[in-house]
Specification:
139 residues, mainly alpha
Length: 139
């Protein structure tokens, strides 16, 4: 990506994206090899402060478990569905909450993911909250 960016823009900087529409940013970033919808959504949300809802493994699994997406939806359909369904003002905070929950909740960790006992204890102490309660009911 860096060599393509240097060749195309003659510098290693993505500031030019700030002048583009969200659709133009998606198209521009998608041209780079190895940059998929999740990375594009992360750049939009975290770097450019645009309303986007990246769907990683954790968000995907939790959204399916909570029946937030149609049965059989893959990650790309989940991305499209959640971005349409979740209000813009909730996207950033909800995404961070689901990601953190998926990383730290013992019941949500799959395929060799791990956390330390200390992280789990801190998470359970902090999150005797809504997500932890839902996880215990749904998962």
């Amino acid at each position: 990506m860096l060599s393509c960016l240097l060749e195309k823009k003659e510098k290693l900087c993505l500031e030019y994206l700030q002048d583009l529409s969200v659709d133009e940013i998606k198209a521009e970033l998608s041209h780079f090899k190895g940059i998929g919808p999740k990375t594009v959504a992360c750049v939009l949300m975290f770097q450019l402060q645009q309303d986007s809802f990246p769907v990683d493994t954790h968000v995907f699994e939790i959204a399916k478990a909570m029946a937030w997406v149609p049965v059989g939806a893959d990650r790309n359909k989940t991305y499209l569905h959640l971005n349409q369904w979740i209000p813009d003002e909730l996207k950033f905070d909800l995404n961070c909450l689901l990601y953190t929950h998926g990383k730290l909740c013992r019941k949500c960790i799959k395929k060799g993911g791990s956390t330390s006992k200390q992280q789990e204890k801190e998470y359970e102490d902090i999150n005797s909250n809504f997500m932890y309660a839902i996880c215990n009911e749904v998962m």
